[in-house]
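Figure 3 (text version): structure tokens given as input.
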């Protein structure tokens, strides 16, 4: 019987285009409503896909502080979120909720 080898799934390896990154963030915003740490983690995944050093420069943050802010272990400030979203070339949108 052959031995099965598994590897850890990393979504960042599959986010190749700006459209895929935006769709991933949108899905995380919808599914994780109210969970800022989950949204931060999604932004971290996108930043890793794009290149953490490049995103950190664009956001005006150090690479280390960006890793900490987007680890999903804490909720970063909204200011940090806005800087990262801008550095990623993404936009946040608002719409009215049904009901």
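Below: residues designed for each position.
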């Amino acid at each position: 019987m052959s031995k099965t080898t598994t590897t850890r799934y990393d979504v960042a390896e599959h986010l190749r285009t700006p459209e895929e990154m935006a769709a991933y963030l949108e899905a995380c915003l919808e599914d994780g409503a109210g969970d800022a740490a989950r949204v931060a983690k999604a932004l971290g995944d996108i930043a890793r896909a794009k290149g953490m050093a490049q995103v950190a420069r664009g956001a005006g943050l150090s690479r280390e502080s960006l890793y900490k802010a987007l680890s999903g272990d804490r909720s970063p400030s909204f200011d940090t979120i806005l800087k990262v979203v801008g550095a990623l070339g993404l936009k946040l949108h608002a719409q009215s909720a049904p009901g």
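The two ends are 56 Å apart (CA to CA).
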